[in-house]
Amino acid sequence: EEQLVESGGGLVQPGGSLRLSCAASGFTFSSYEMNWVRQAPGRGLEWVAYISTSGSTIFYADSVKGRFTISRDNAKNSVFLQMDSLRAEDTAVYYCARDSGSYYFDFWGQGTLVTVSS
Amino acid sequence: DIQMTQSPFTLSASVGDTVTITCRASQSFSNWLAWYQQKPGKAPKLLIYKASGLKSGVPSRFSGSGSGTEFTLTISSLQPDDFATYYCQQYNSYPWTFGQGTKVEIK
User: Fold this and answer.
1) B83 touches chain A (CB under 8 A)
2) How far apart are CA A80 and CA B82, in angstroms?
3) Residues A12-33 pLDDT 10s
4) 3-state class (DSSP) for residue B105
């Protein structure tokens, strides 16, 4: 069974940092590009970051560029999102999403909640 | 950036109805559009890709169409399991963007 399991969310103060992890199983992780997509409470979906299979190509949304870093470890079947200089507007459920190969998302994890508040 | 605008915001319908959700793009593109279903507290699920391609395992009552700046998702013979929020997403160009969502409610 294919699975994506996110972890690492929690409460953090403005200006703080958090590192999200997403563990994949049930499919050949190293063959898939991966993304992070977030959803603020009661709001819609916002794509955040993309990483290619090797990690050599990375894209970010303008809203997080320079503050967030996506990375992956194919040996550990995991993708990560390092979030620095967090702001209240970064409060959201963060989903790990598998890329179809064409930049739409064919499988999603259950999400992890990040709350930025003092 | 390509802005995606869905209509309506909310749609009230009954079991058995046929409903249509529209997604309009701020720029024209071919068929690089996906549709997702999301239920409360759950992750989105892919329904349609490339505007009209049905993901394996998705019921055939879901269909998509369109190109250019207007795309539609149609649900024929609405079932109780279909009451959810639906999002379109363009993947024609970076950054990939979503519509704001359409909530399909029970009338």
Assistant:
1) no
2) 33
3) 999 999 999 999 999 999 999 9
4) strand
Please tell me which residue of chain A has the smallest CA distance to B3: A46
Q: What is the DSSP string of B10-76?
A: EEEE-TT--EEEEEEEEEEESS-EEEEEE-TTS--EEEEETTTEEPTTS-TTEEEEEEEEEEEEEES
The percent of residues above 90 in pLDDT, for chain B, comes to 97
Closest CA to B24 of B8, B46, B47: B8
Q: Do A45 and B46 touch (CB under 8 A)?
A: no
Please tell me which of the candidates A44, A100, A111 has its beta carbon nearest to residue B87: A44
Question: CB distance A45–B91 less than 8 Å?
Answer: no
